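Quick one: structure for this chain?
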Amino acid sequence: MDKVKDRLLLIFILSLILVLRIPYISNSPYEQGENWRQSDTESIARNFLEDKFNIFYPQFNYDGPLPNYVQLEFQITTFIIAILYKFFGYNYIFARAVPLCFFMGSCIFLYLIGRMFYSKEQAYIVLVIYGILPINIYFSRAIMPESAALFFYLAAYYYFLKWIKEEEKKLIFLSAVFTALSISQKIPTIFIGIPMLIMAIKKYKKAIFKIKELYLFAIIALGSPYLYFKWVAYIAEFRFVNNIAQKHIYKRLFTDIFTKEALNFFKLKLPQEFSLGILLLFIIGIFMIKMKKELPLLLWLLTMILELVLIVAVIRLNYYLIFISPIIALIASKPLYLIWKHKYGGVFITAIVFFIGISSYSRLVPLYKEKTNLLKQANMVKKYTNVEDLIVVGTPDPALINASQRRGWRANIDYYDYIPKDPVKEINYYIENGAKYFVPMKGWIHNDKGEYRKYLEENFKKIIDEDGYYIYVLQ
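Got it. Here's what it folds into:
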């Protein structure tokens, strides 16, 4: 009976976590929050289905006509979405269901990790905290690869911890496969290898070089993603995200953490994404860590702090903070568990969790609001142009191209050397390469001081709809 009750309680907590994510589940990718990354991800799924149904050939809709093969993560999330689209039709519910399922799977693995170190009651608390963190509520249902990365990353660490304890070969094989998949989704998850290595050294000491399983682990965990990334670098035609690590991260690994921009980012984003209440519990929990028993968790924490310092301080994208969320949940559970053991602990914890959950969710609601102007402009493009028509948009954000379900270019972004910088020459370049329409965002053109608009107004026909949205006919 106790096992049945435990399972029912676990199912109940998981159900609550799931229910938190059901509102707005049918939203398009064109939300106030992260519409660029979400729309790119969803467009890759569409291109799998409509152009090249091959997971090793991801394509963007920009800059230029297809194929625009892009150097990105291994496309597990988008390929599953494409399969669902193929059988059930285009519906954003399916696009959001995929990352949501991955996140729910990550909850299971985090609970199992929690049970390795804590009582089942404290593991439940870990799960609740993990489920109500603002960053996890939003990105667990975002059309992005973060949920898949979390799932693989937690599975990898769980099976490695089990292997350290039980030394069963299949466990380290599973850990290696999940580590490879994790790195293939988000390269910064490679940091989880640091506590893995330290724990292996602690256990085997000098004999570590004789453990054949570790060599196999390294070949699978590192070799597989390495080969994949070499492949996409080879086929990539789209330059905008090529070699991001080399161009933007490696040169600034140890310096950006001291910049004003990085410090302001953490000052603003950490409370927003994790809530002040959880951060306070987390800080208290750090002083409660039992070095001997919880060494794997302490190593994990230190490694994730290193990831913040070396990677997130450079990139400064809030969704890269998500990989510290599991260890924050584990450590923040410690002071809450002390409260749980109080006579009225259940009441206190319920009140605390309810308050944090409500405040977290209320902060996220504005991010769920769809960008109606963008969708109206995109609908006009779909109404007056053909699917095969190439367009040029006046926004650096490609969401307008993706929402229009067309291919083309982003004007006036001053990025590509081969595209002229002069407005007249640039527009003529697009025309020569097949562009048929220019689409400003309700009249707005990025970085324009008047030259772009003036040239378009004086030289090209304009189609205007009843809401005041318009496009220019280039040819």
